[in-house]
Amino acid sequence: MEDCKGVIATGQQIGAGWSPALSVVKALAVAAEARRRGLRPVYWLADEDHDHAEIASVIAVQGERLVRHRFHFSAPPGTATGWLEWTEHHQTEAQKLWGRLPEPIEPTLRGHVLALGEPLWDRGIVPFSPTMDIDRASIQDELERWQAMELEKDLHQQADLLESRGEKLILDPRKQSAWFSLDPNTGKRSPLEFGQPCPARHWLSPGAALRPLMQSLALPVEAVILGPAERGYWQLIERIWDRVGLKVPEILPRPTVFVVDDDSPEISADMLEALQLRQWEAFGQAMHIKPSALTFPEPNSGWSDAVSGRYQKEIERLQTRLKRLDLRLEKEMAGKQIGADIEKLRQKLFPFNKFQERVIPGWYWLKNHALLERIEKAMMADKELYLITGLN
Q1: Which of 347, 323, 338 lies closest to 282, judged by CA?
Q2: Mean pLDDT by 10 residues, the chain (392 residues)
Q3: Close Cβ partners of 284 (under 8 Å, ≥ 6 residues apart)
Q4: HEC sequence for 83-117
Q5: Given CB 3.0 to 4.6 Å as the disulfide criterion, which of 7, 73, 162, 188 pairs with 167?
Q6: What is the tens place of the pLDDT at every residue in 206-220?
Q7: What tens digit of pLDDT does each residue of 249-297 get?
Q8: Which residue, 176, 177, 241, is CA-closest to 212?
Q9: 3-state SS track over the chain
C-alpha cells in the first residue's frame, strides 16, 4: 500500500458463505473503478463488527427452494466477528448447504471468508482486515486524540440537522455508541460512554458512524463505493473530516446486479420493476375482455326483493373472484410473451420479495469464474444496474 497512488475502497461485515451476494458486487465494483483510475482496489473486511445474527443467518438454494439456516458460534455476545471460530463442524455444516468449499486459511470466520474470496483476490482485489492488517498500537494515539475531541457532539448536531431537513436516519448516533473498546485477546467489544477512556491494553474501536475516518487513517482512500444505507450514515460525519485533518473520499454509488440463467429471457430495467411489483400487464398483450368485465343479466322482474338482493350480492362476490382471475390470465399471457415461467423468474430475481443480491450467499457467484468475469466486464460500462446471464 505504501507504493500505490491511492485506493478505491469498499467493504462489508464478513458473513458465512460471503452472505449476502452484494458483497461480491461491491468487490467487483471497486475492481472496475480502480482499473478506470489506475488505483488499487481494496475490500475492507469489517471483522471488527459484532452483529452475530446478521453474519450467521444465511440462505441455501436447494432445487427450486430457498432454505433458511443459521450458524451458531460459541463466543459470547459482543465478540467481534474476526474472533469467531470456524470449526470443522461449521465447515461440514456449510458444505451441506452449498457443496464443496475451500478450507479456511485460519480457523476463524475471517479465515473462511478469505478462502472463499480467493477468486476476487486473484483478480487483484486486496483484502484488508482492520483487526489483522494494521498495527493498532500505531493508530491508538490518533484515535484517542479523536475521542478527546468529543466528536459525538458533531454527530448529534448533524443528526439534528438531517432530521430538520426531513431526512430519515439510517443510524442514530444519539442512541448508539460512537466508541467501543476491543480486547485483542478475546475479541470482546464493549461500548464506551461519552468521555469514558479505553481500558489499558485494549484497542479503541470506532462505531459505524466514525469507521470511515479510521479507514482513511489506515489507507490512502481516494474514493469509496457505498450502498444507500452506508451513504446515509456517511452524511453524519460531513463536518468531521476537516476537524481530524483527513481528506474526504469521493463517494460512488454501489451498482445493483441481477444474475439469471443463460437461457433466461431478456429483461429491461423497467420490466424488472414491473416484475417485482407483479405488474404482469407490462409484459403481456392486452386482453380484449377481462373476466371481471363480463356482464350478467339483471334480476328477473318476477323475483322478490329478497331473491333479487341475494342475486346481486352473489354477482358482486363472483366479480371479486373474477378480478383475481384477471391477474392469473395476465400472468399467463405475460409468461407466453417472454417465453418463461414468469413467477419462477420473479422468485429467482426477488427471493422473499427482496433483491436477489441481498438474499443469496455470494459463494454461488464466487465459484463461477466466468460469471465474475462477465460482471466485472459489464461494470466497465459504469451503470447503476446490471442484468447478467451466466448462472448455469
Answers
A1: 338
A2: 80 94 97 95 94 90 91 93 96 97 96 98 97 94 97 96 93 94 96 94 95 96 94 92 96 94 82 88 74 90 94 94 89 84 90 95 96 94 86 68
A3: 330, 332, 333, 334, 335, 336, 337
A4: HCECCHHHHHHHHHHHCCCCCCCCCEHHHHHHHHC
A5: 162
A6: 999 999 999 999 999
A7: 999 999 999 998 888 888 888 888 889 998 888 876 666 688 888 889 9
A8: 241
A9: CCCCCCEEEEEECCCHHHCCCHHHHHHHHHHHHHHHHCCEEEEEECCCCCCHHHHHEEEEEECCEEEEEECCCCCCCCECHHHCECCHHHHHHHHHHHCCCCCCCCCEHHHHHHHHCHHHHCCCCEEECCCCCCCHHHHHHHHHHHHHCCHHHHHHHHHHHHHHCCCCCCCCCCCCCCEEEECCCCCEEEECCCCCCCCCCCEEEECCCCHHHHHHHHCCEEEEEECHHHHHHHHHHCCCHHHHCCCCCEEEECCEEEEECCCCCCCCHHHHHHHHCCCHHHCCCCCCCCHHHCCCCCCCCCCCHHHHHHHHHHHHHHHHHHHHHHHHHHHHHHHHHHCCCHHHHHHHHCHHHCCHHHCCCCHHHHCCHHHHHHHHHHHCCCCCEEEEECCC
Phi, psi at 245, each rounded to 5°: 80, 35
Domain ranges of the chain: 265-339
List phi, psi (to 5°) of 189. Answer: -115, 120
**What is the C-alpha separation between 261 and 388, in angstroms, rounded?**
9
Nearest to 384 by CA among 52, 21, 29: 29
Between the alpha carbon of residue 363 and those of residues 18, 58, 100, 162, 224, the distances in Å are 6, 11, 11, 37, 23
Q: Read off the amino acid at residue 376.
A: E
Contact 372, 364 (CB under 8 A): no
* Grid coordinates belonging to 5: 497512488
DSSP-assigned beta bridge partners for residue 128: 44
Amino acid code (one letter) for 5: K
Residue 2 identity (one-letter amino acid): E
Predicted TM-score (pTM) of this structure = 0.89
> Other CB atoms closer than 10 Å to residue 379's CB: what's the count?
22
